[in-house]
Amino acid sequence: MNAASPDIVYDLVIIGGGINGCGIARDASGRGLKVLLCEKGDLAQATSSASTKLFHGGLRYLEYYEFRLVREALKEREVLLRAMPHISWPLRFVLPHHSGLRPKWLLRLGLFIYDHMGGRIILPPTRTLDLRKDSAGRPLQDRFTTAFEYSDCWVEDSRLVALNARDAADKGAVILTQTSCQTAGRLNGIWQVTLRNEVTHATYVVQARCLVNAGGPWVEDIFRNKLRQNSSDRTRLVRGSHIVTRKLFDHDRPYFFQQSDGRIIFAIPYETDFTLIGTTDLDHHGDPGSPVCTDAEKDYLCKAASEYFKNPVTAADVVWSYSGVRPLYDDGATSATAATRDYVLKVEVEAGAPLLNVFGGKITTYRKLAEAALAKLRPWFPDMGQVWTAGAPLPGGDFAVDGVADLIVKLRQKHPFLDEKWAKRLVRAYGTQAFELLADAKSTADLGQNFGWNLTEREVTWLRTHEFAHSAADVLWRRSKIGLRLDADQAQVLQDWIDSTKHV
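Above: the chain's sequence. Below: its structure in token form.
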């Protein structure tokens, strides 16, 4: 990967390696702009790896009249699905009718709008299920007899971030992880940005015509304390927590469960052997970098799921939990649930050097957010290229939207030592680039040490070389979810190997 240069005046220096920062970096690099992105930790280390992992319109946002946001998100689902069929795929959600909550006519109306306002082509429409006959009804309590089945999409959220960063780097962007912005100020119309390497603690200055603050939960801290900028804009930090349980049902359709408090939760098949349940919506106070799913939130999610499943979900079923802080734009909503999920972009200009602050946003609309951000900055970069990302696959995504099964067959034909499960994992992670990763390997011995769950030296080297991974946690929890499979001793073996080969 390329390195920063103090002799270059970058067009954009982007602070923050979450989905918004990496999406803007990719789009801008593809338009010919010189881009540097700095991230104090790992890519997607905070909010962007703690989502519910869905490309969805946000069915419940219709109740808050967020029609522009829902329409944009619905249109984006299929654009994104075509661009990354390895890390995103369609899901059919089952929404049981609860007689004590929203009436059937209201659910039908909402789903009719959902089906028709987004230009749906690939995804099938809503249908009604008789839960007494359909397999989706078997895990549910007998009192649920009718459900609606509708379409949305899954996405591997942290891999989405890494692949956007990878594509940006391939187009010339400098991507610096483990690098924080210490301070920044304007001098003669140019930003002077002091960066610090968080491993060596070395500091140095880079220059930029424009600064983009995509700091996520730290966006307000950055513009107030790092950049010394005054603004009336505020963020509202909202914590969303999830639990992962043992597998609760055998089919591949997730559930959408309404709650008596007006909220909803999802119960989604996860990593083959688990179920993902979430999310909560609570105002967050304190450090946004270390949120935890509290015991109260775990209890809430267990009880919420138990209202629907025949077999109660208990704390004993939980194998893992995670929590993220959403940096929503503070629109004065009375509750965290009602606060807008729409993005807000604010440009401030002083002495000819613009600052773009990025507030909020959904993972589903990250690409549109990037386009909107560059549209805001076009007055300062009138020669930048035009919009281009809608038809461009992410690395490894250059195959048919329904081509995963065929790709698995071809990978196993070329590498017969792969079993079905291993080949599927590689295709789902790397798409067509799985062939490049395995290269001329004839046996497992050619891939080096196996750290567990068929995670080999060859794959870890690929992640370090091509996807900015530096630690075992980067590999096990953000470039994959193999951390669910390995114990602490196995994770330490991986970390020891990474440490011993850092300069190789």
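The chain is about 30% helix and 25% strand.
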